[in-house]
Amino acid sequence: MDLIDLRNVSDLTGIDINMVDTNTLAPEMEPNRQLYFMAKSREYVKRKSEELGRNLTVHITTFGCQMNAKDSEKLLGILEKIGYEETDDEKAADFLIMNTCTVRENANQKVYGHLGMYQSRKKKAPHRMIAICGCMMQEPEVIEKLKKSYRFVDLIFGTHNIFKLAELVSLCLEERLEELEAQGREDKKPKHKMVVDVWKDTDQIVEDLPVERKYSFKSGVNIMFGCNNFCSYCIVPYVRGRERSRRPGEIIGEIKNLVEDGVVEVMLLGQNVNSYGKGLDEPLNFAELLEEVEKIEGLERIRFMTSHPKDLSDELIEVMAKSKKICRHLHLPLQSGSSRILKAMNRRYTKEQYLALAEKIKTAIPDISLTTDIIVGFPGETEEDFQETLDVVRKVRFDSAFTFIYSKRTGTPAAAMENQVPEDVVKNRFDRLLKEVQDISAEVCGRDVHTVQTVLVEEVNDHSPELVTGRMSNNTIVHFPGDASLIGKLVDVYLEESKGFYYMGRLNQ
Ligand code: 5AD
Ligand code: SF4
Predict the structure, then answer these.
(1) Pair 499, 484: CB distance under 8 Å
(2) 265 CA to centre of ligand 1 in angstroms
(3) Which protein residue has the closest C-alpha to ligand 2 atom 4?
(4) Quick check: CB of 231 below 6 Å from ligand 2?
(5) Mean pLDDT to the nearest integer, 274-291
(6) Alpha-carbon dihedral of residues 168, 172, 176, 177, nearest 10 degrees?
(7) Residues 155, 199, 60, 71, Cα dihedral to 10°
(8) Which letter does DSSP use for residue 420 in this model?
(9) Which of 120, 204, 347, 378 is most open to solvent, judged by the fewest CB atoms within 10 Å of its CB?
(10) Hey, is 170 helix, strand or coil?
(11) What is the pLDDT of residue 1?
């Protein structure tokens, strides 16, 4: 059979990667170009596996949000195509990847800690490859530091070019492959080069590459990338670039394929899903996109993340209220309850507007679960401002809230603000906020006790193997007796007991 020259191929479905001709020049067009490099890198993985007498393994450590989790699934999909096998054993992996987050300073610290451990791993087995990617790599100071003090890293890339992973890996492996081909084995200490490819921004969206999903029955689906909001504390717009929406046809097509593959729940992902659709050739807003997704047969549940209060439309509330598939959960980041601080944060809503919006949502969708993000200690925050935040927490009564201590991010407007709040004051406020949030949450979360709720079963319980764990539409966790055969199924569960943040239940047959 003839080898396939990818430069002449327009439809990649059904292409056997073993048949790709890697002696031609690489195709210019994506995603053909990446498939070509997958085939090329695969040659190294095959030969090295033969040399070692076992499969090569990869371990990905993911920090941060759902977007990063989704990106890691894409990375793994590509690497499995190349021939790597995923392993949980970080100590033994042949390829170590860290997908980083930089939203708060402590996320950065963790990465450097991890790198120290990677260095000693590499000393033990020099063929090990080490890659770092994700949001932190979009910061020039980080790249400088890595280039200077962490020379053992093989590959550094950013958030805009993860689709290029196969090509970058192929660059790292080029000389190693030559060695293997020349002498049938790799030198004890293979030639090392550091490949760095970080793009400032992009308008390119390359999908249609392999993805290795963590769960067979649920999946994240990117609907947009980047953020244009520039909240004054936030680094995301600088590291994830300008807002770009994916075309509706592509999103719907991807979801249909997922459903065919057994997925029953999707999470539509974007930094600000409520502004979906701007700049598309055929305009479609987020509410309209949801209506299209709802029509997909076989899809049972729709979630989305994250909503910005300033862009949440009445149309969206209406669509949610009448939907049979959109889950009864809305994550609506508050950040602060003080209108003065909200202005300094560039959030573009006031305390009163947020409260009115929360009220409107609860009235239209009484069984909705509202969750939020709150930052304490933003520059200039006074005790009075903080009291305003507590006031909103008490009035809205969130099901749960992620609470964060303000973290100064270099390059953001807030980092240059003078009146930073002293650490002990912030810590004290943080503790008071957490207590308030938890007390309310324990009361609110128990409201469905002694009712029957539909639960999507996700896994066998880690601690008690006779139990399975699943989620209600409003995202609350339920544990109940069952076995692995229930995973991925939607079942009716009677909620026997509320434990504050979760329920204990039993199958309702
Ligand atoms: N400091 C603390 N928290 C932050 N977040 C974003 N930037 C910062 C920062 N500099 C929080 C916000 C956001 C969540 C994802 O992270 O609350 O909603
Ligand atoms: Fe950051 Fe604000 Fe964009 Fe969210 S909306 S990613 S907080 S800039």
Answers:
(1) no
(2) 27
(3) 271
(4) yes
(5) 94
(6) 10
(7) -160
(8) P
(9) 120
(10) helix
(11) 63
Burial 98-134 (b: 16+ CB within 10 A, else e): bbbbbbbeebbeebeebbeebeebbeeeebbbbbbbb
Whole-number pLDDT of residue 375: 98
> What atom in ligand 2 is closest to the CA of residue 227?
3
C-alpha 248/C-alpha 111 separation (Å) is 36
Nearest ligand to the C-alpha of residue 227? 2
Q: Would you say the CB of residue 5 lies under 6 angstroms from ligand 1?
A: no
- Rounded to the nearest angstrom, the distance between the alpha carbon of 234 and the centre of ligand 1 is 6
Query: Is the shortest distance between the CB of 237 and ligand 2 below 6 Å?
Result: yes
**Beta partners for residue 495, in sequence order:** 505
Q: Which of 198, 248, 241 is nearest to 223 (CA)?
A: 248
Q: How many angstroms does the Cα of residue 375 sit away from the middle of ligand 1?
A: 7
Q: Got the DSSP string for 295-363?
A: T-TT--EEEEE---GGG--HHHHHHHHH-SSB-SEEE---B-S-HHHHHHTT----HHHHHHHHHHHHH
Confirm if 399 and 367 have CB atoms less than 8 A apart.
no
Q: What is residue 231's three-state secondary structure?
A: coil
Say whether 168 sits in a helix, a strand or coil: helix
Which range has the worst mean pLDDT, 87-91, 199-203, 489-493?
A: 199-203
pLDDT in tens, 115-139: 999 999 999 888 999 999 999 999 9
Q: What does the alpha-carbon distance between residue 395 and residue 31 come to, in Å, rounded to a whole number?
A: 50
Distance CA 505, CA 499 (A): 11
Structure tokens at 271: 């930094």
Residue nearest to atom 13 of ligand 1 (CA): 373
Residue 266 pairs with which residues in a beta bridge? 219, 302
| Nearest Cα residue to 22 out of 11, 10, 9, 33 | 33
334 lines ligand 1 (CB under 6 A): no
Assess whether the C-beta atom of 271 lies below 6 angstroms from ligand 2.
yes
In a mutational test of the pocket of ligand 2, which residue from 231, 239, 348 has the highest number of ligand atoms less than 8 Å from its CB? 231
Give the Cα-Cα-Cα angle 459, 291, 357 (nearest 5 degrees). 85
Residues 6+ away with beta carbon under 8 Å from 217: 262, 263, 264, 265, 456, 458, 487, 488
**Does residue 82 contact residue 38 with C-beta atoms inside 8 Å?**
yes
Give the tokens for residue 229. Answer: 């909001």
Q: What confidence score (pLDDT) does residue 181 get?
A: 81
DSSP 433-472: HHHHHHHHHHHHHGGGTTSEEEEEEEEE-SS-TTEEEEEE
CA of 224 to the centre of ligand 2 (A): 13
Q: Which ligand is nearest to the CA of 226?
A: 2
